[in-house]
Structure formats: structure tokens, C-alpha cells
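Protocol step 6 of 9: fold each sequence in the batch and record its C-alpha cells directly after the sequence line. For illustration, a two-sequence batch is reproduced in full.

Sequence one:
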Amino acid sequence: MYPCSNTTTRTMFLSTLKRNIPQRSMSGKKKQVPWLTALVLRRISKRNAARKLAKRKGTPSLWQRFRCLRNKAVEAVRAAKKAFFKSLSSKISTTKDFWHIYHSITSVQQQIPSILSRGVTTATSAFDQATMPNDQFASTFSARDTPLEVPARSGGESCASLVVTRCSEDKVYHALCAIRPQVAPGPDGIMGWMLRRASLSIYSSLTTIFNASIRLGRVPSSWKNFNVTPIFKSGDAGLALNYRPISLLFLVSKILECQVHDVMQQHLLEHDLLSDVQFGFRPGASTQEAILATTKDWHWSLEKSESVACVLLNLSKAFDSFPHPLILDSLVRVGIGWEILLWIRDYLSDRSQQVVLRGIKSPAVSITSGVPQGSILGPLLFIITIDSISQVSISTLGRFSLFADDICYYRPVSQQEDILAVQNDVDLIYSWVEFKKLSLNASKTKCMLISRKRNPPNLNLTIDVVQIERVQHFRLLGVIISNDLTWSEHIVTTCGKAKRFIGFLYRYFNLADKKCLEHLYLTLVRPMLDYGCCVWSPYQAKYVDQLESVQTFATRLATKKWSSDSATLRSLLGW
């Protein structure tokens, strides 16, 4: 059956494409800025040839000829760049065109250094550099010594059980047509445009395969081995631990995942099975809604002359370390039916991954925990699993705010005795983490007391005898929260970031016309100022003036009028 092995089908599909679609080999060329036309490149080539000849023979006439060609090349580059930016607005007709041109001008691709380190080990060869990140990713997996089994139902589930409906040909066809042509292929090399072009011929067969896969509770074994791309997070790029794994799955398998995901999500929404404090990966929910709901509770406590103790919890590698039995237990809890449980058990079993770096493939390692980052189904499985933290028996006044793996616990406090209740809640949360075989990073967990009292309670908390760092402000979903719940720190930081980015745009796009610069500002800078403004929008004149100064800076850049009145310029641009 196909659900057990799809090698023959894939080979037939690729051979048919090769036989019917003309192919040609293309040599990779270094990307160049878009204004380098053929005329400019010829002048640059003549300049380089003249310089080599002048260096070899060293005669004054040859050096004079080189300087003449160099000046012509410089003039050609300047003229071509000016003409390109002058006509740039007419070239940006769609969002896709805008981002293509923007990245062609500004992007500097993050390259993994030629030397990687992990602990005391250093990788210099191409094979070792591909193997080291994969070993680092594998070190975060939870051990599993026994085969993965579907847990038995306790009989106490109050929610309705999910009855699976089969995939329809119409849904599969529309999923194939919705694949972006430029999406990265999986290990089979089947591109997005191939599936789109062949959608009319393959959608019926794929529907049969998908339904057989769900009915038998089996996922094709070849779909379980996939490539992983290391994506740099932050910090030292030479350390393997500063990369996160993004899975490049088979595109056909992601279509099947999408069908299962839609059925499960509809079940969760119809029966309201996720807690109200979980805002991540849910339709209609957003980070701004999460921040607004959380700060509303904090303001309410401050208005009652109370303080608020907050703990920002940091789970280590949560997406990669969730034990698979825990995921299945959570699915049983929300009433996922037997067929889907068997299918997800097989989906999570016997998976393996390898890192492909600079064309070199590392040895495959088994995946014994977590969900694939880059999959369709992974985020939904994750929030179902982590949502059980909201059921921890904390104190009555304790609250959670969840956005995927960002966990914020808070509780109103009035006196020092309330801090003991907070410590007890933190101990219960830590017990939950230990019971679920997860890892809480105590060094990155922060606590803060939000208060406007002169003599607030002393917030002193520990996790497993490790002191939790107390801070004066922390970043919650992109918004800086201060201990007095004022927004000066966030506004100053946001304005500084926006002005630096405007300066960046000026360096790269100083020759662009007004329409193009306005488009750049409204697309790239204005969202920085708008994000979360429903929470932190200021009423003090000094903070309003800071935000207005960003607008003023941008209007002068867009109009190239540095001495005009800012109000006149904003009205001219319609800002």
C-alpha cells in the first residue's frame, strides 16, 4: 500500500515531469544589485581588464587609460542607479514586487560561519559543520525507550469525541492550487510549481492516498525522514546552540497535515476546548489581544491600590522537548477520535532528520520528542499540549497569559503574605513542568512587581532553590512592560529603533522618489509605531512629541525638504 511506501509513486511523478517538461542546467551567479545593466557591466569589465594590463606592464599611458575607463564606469553606475530609483515606483505594482526589489537592494544573507563550536568541540570541515547543528538539535530531545502507544480513555472526558470525515477531492485540489510556487521543496525535490501545474492530474489519486493513510492510521515512512535548515536566532553565530531547526517537509505530506489540522481545529473551536488564556496559533487571536487582556487585569489591580507580581517563565526548547506520550494524553483529553489518534501516533513515531548545509548532508538522527518546526500540524499539537498548564491548581487570584511557549503568570498582591501564595504557585508550576518532563530555564525566567506604592511588598521568588532574577521591566510579546506600568521605556526604545531604520532606508534609497519612500515608510517603519498602540498609546505631551519626531524625520526624508514646516509636509503626504 502507498501509506507504507511511496517511493514508486514519487519516482513515476518525477520521471513524468522530466519527460514532459524541458529542463536546463543553470550556473549559479553571484547576486548583483538590480541597477547594474549590461552596459554598466561591460564598462566595469573594461575597467578591470585595463587595471590588470596596467599593473602588468606599468606604462603611464596604460594607467591613464585605466583612469579614463574607471571614471566612465563610475559615471555609468551613478547614472544607472539614478535612473533605476527614478522609475522604481512604476515597478512596484504588487506586494511581491516590492519585497523582491527591497531584498535585492538591502538583503545580506546570514551565512553560517566556517567554524562552528559546541562546548569544547570545534567543527571546521564541511561534514562536521553539518553534523554539529544536528547533534545540538538532537540533544534537546526527550528520551523514549518504549514504543509510542495511544493512551486509553479514562471515561471521564466531558467533551465530544471527534469523528473523522474523509478528505474531499475538492479540498485537496484547492490545497494543491494554493501552494506557493517558490516554497522550499522537501527531500524529494518536488517543487511547489510542479504540484500546482499537475494538480488536475493528481488531486484524485492524492485524495485516495490521504484517506487510506487516515483509515489505516499510517503515514508513509519516506515522509518521516526530512531535512532541517539551521536558522540563526541571536547571540554568537559561531555557537551551534544559537540556531533553531526549521524542517523542510515533503509538500504532499503538508497537504495531508493541513486536512487533519482543519478537522482538529474545527473540533476545538466548536466545543471551546482551549482555555481563554491561550492566544497563540488560534484563529482571531493575536499578540496584541493577549497584551491587551493581560494589561487590563494589571490596571484593574492598580486601580484597587494593589500590586501585581509577574513571573515570565522560560521553557527550554519547548517545541523540541515535549514528550510524545504527553501529546497523545492531551489529545485524548480534548476528545480526539481513535482514527486520528492512531494516525498522529504513527506521525510522531520513527521520525528522523538530517541537516543539509552547503550541499553536505549530516547523518540522520531519530526524533523522540517534540513537534516539527515548519510543519502545519505541529503548532496545533503544541498549544493543545501546553494548554494544560492553565489547569494547574494555583491560588484563586493567580492567572496565566499564554502565547504558544511564552508563559506569563501573575497575581495581585497587597501584603507580604501574598508573596508566599505567589511562591507556592511558582512551586506548583515547577512541579507541573517536572511532571511533564520539560525543562524550565531558571536563568532566563524573570519576575517583576508592578506597583505604584511607596512601600510595596518585597518580591523574592525561587525556582528549585534558584533565585529568580527580579527586573524593572521585561519584554512581553514585543512590548516593554515597566514595573510602574508606564510606557516611557517602550516609547523611547520604539522611537529609537524606528529612527535607526529610517536612517537605514535613507542610506539605501536616498535616490528614490517621494512615492517610493512613502511606500517604504508605511510598509516598514509605521508598523513599528502602530504595534500594540491600543495598549501603550501615550497621553503625555513629551511622549507624543517623541512619536511625532519620527513622523517628522520620515516626512523630511520622503520629500527631501529639510527646512520646511513638518505639519505642512505631513499634510502634503496625507500622513
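Sequence two, same batch, same settings:
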Amino acid sequence: MIDGTNNSTTTVTGSSQPFAIAVNAVTNKIYVANFNNNKATVIDGTNNTTTTVAVGRNPNAVAVNAVTNKIYVSNGSTNNVTVISGDDNTTPTPTPTPTPTPMPTPTPQTCTSFTTVTEGDLFPGGIVSFGVSSGSGFVTVDHVNAGTGLQSLTLVGAPINATVNIPAFTTGTYNPVVVTFTRPNSALAVDFTLQAASTFHAANIRVRCLAPTPTPTP
């Protein structure tokens, strides 16, 4: 060590192939990375006494954060960094970040639906062309046994709180087609619209389930 006021020198022993050095001017501590013995030497600048701190293999760099009084030693052979607390020269193990508890996925449920049928965008007569019934998690669309049969059955827009399954069917069928659905969030209402169409007539079928009424707290 060199005294900058008069260039006199003092030798501080205890290192083994000192490789890097850093100074904390706030605490007057000097930190030396010793490549050979896998330790860092802490020198007290007031009296040149030393303390050694075990670090990783072949430490080859050292840096000081004077604000937090933390010292960071790079370990060349273990590919990691040792953090030294300047308060007491310990190397505390970092507290792992807790894994957040995943929110449970709501179990899809069915609900007893009710429907409102209105005329579609083709020739008048769509309402009487289709028989519609509904129940717990399903809607049945049944074309009357005349005309061109059921040509298409589609969702209109995005369903609200509903996962809707329209099964495959033979174009022009007169057989009932059963559309099923589940309610992902059992606390919310369900609302979606189907459009059933033959060649000349169409009907819009709005399907809804109301949100459950909360149970009063005793």
C-alpha cells in the first residue's frame, strides 16, 4: 500500500495471487480477490488489519456498491458471483423469490338456458321454420320437415362466458341438431347468439343464462 501524502509503502500480507482490488471509500475497506486460494481479503484501511472471506473458485474481479455496502466477487471457474455484506463480511444466501400460488381454474359448469328467437336476414318466415328448445347446457334447433332443411348453424359474434360446441351435421337435414355449451365462470351470466338458416329463411336464437343470485350471509 502506498501513502499518497509521502509515497511511503506498507506491505499487507495474507493474499494468494491477488488478482483484483476494489475500495469502499465510505467504510475505508479494501477488497482483494485472491485467485489461488478462493478467498477475498478484506483490509481495514484504518489499521491495515485483514479478514478473509471464502468465495468461489478462482476469483478474478471485485466491485463495491458503496450505497448498499455490498461487495461482488466474480468467480472465474464456478461461473457465479459471491456477494459479501460489508457490515459483517458474511456471504448470505439470497432469499428465493416465492413461487406464486396459481389461481385455481374455475370448473366449467352448465346452466339452464332460455332463448329468444327473432327473424334473420333472409325472407320472412324464419321464426316458424325452426323449432327451438333449451335446457341445462344445450339448445336444440329443429328445422320443420319442409323446404330445404337446415343449411347452416353458426355463432353470431363472440359468446359471453360460454364455450359453445356446434356439432357437425348433414347439410339440409331435418333432424334436430343439439348445440351444447358450458359456462367457464359460474358466477357470471351467459349470453350468445346462434343463427340457423335454410336456403330462404333464417332465425337468430339468443341463448342466455342469468348470473346466480348470491346467497345472503346469515
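Proceed to step 7 once all outputs are recorded. Observation for sequence two: The mean pLDDT is 88.
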